[in-house]
Amino acid sequence: MLETHNLTVRFGGHVAVNAVSCRFAPGTLTAIVGPNGAGKTTYFNLISGQLPASAGSVHLNGRELTGLSASARTRAGLGRAFQLTNLFPNLSVLENVRLAVQATKEGAHRRGLNLWSIWSDHAALTNRALEILDSVSMTAQQDAPVASLPHGDQRKLEVALLMALEPSVYMFDEPTAGMSHDEAPVILDLIRQLKKDKTKTILLVEHKMDVVRELADRIIVLHNGALVADGDPAEVIASPIVQEAYLGKARETA
Length: 254
Description:
By secondary structure, this protein is α/β, with parallel strands linked by helices. It folds into two domains: 1-77 and 167-187 and 200-254, 3-Layer(aba) Sandwich (Rossmann fold); 91-166, no CATH class. 38% of the residues lie in helices and 24% in strands. The protein has ten helices and ten strands. It has a six-stranded mixed β-sheet, sandwiched between helices. The protein has a four-stranded antiparallel β-sheet with strand order 2-1-4-5, covered by helices on one side. The radius of gyration is 19 Å and the shape is globular. The termini are far apart.
């Protein structure tokens, strides 16, 4: 269970995220929507540790993460994908995934670990990396430098890196941003596959409402940094506050 309690961040006099309290359960995909500037990505940054909170807290499975760095939160089980890919462009596809597998192994065996013990398990790391690449249909590109990949394949590879980290929470920030009409379905298929594991929690920031309708079990809406709606996708999308806040429709006056 991922939880935020009164999570807030201020930039000078501007409150970008305003006392957002929410719980995200395993086995659900929650879409976070709202107009531009609503605070969606900032809320993600507060959860994953890219930004320090001005107030409030973040908890995962009862453990408070608020004071931890982004890397420590990753080790605790938060996996984050960004709007822009976060890869090692000069390494091969396989090397990128193998590094993520290695990081997971290191975190699991940090006590008493030495560098030689990691590299002695090189074959096992490589085999696990190849399994993950097969699951995202990228085995044929394992030796290609990441910089040579088209944008859509780089996004696929970023999902593979998240899978290698074995998080309990997957966080996707506009996963199809910058992708062509033909590329986007591949990423959405990967997210559908992740949804089948009911032990995982998935958070999705997405502007495309057709994607939200298809994938989301639940929608929360942020507007001016505040949580203004939360519930079943059909009900939330149809609610007056979302019609106004997200779609820009003015309230009818009596």
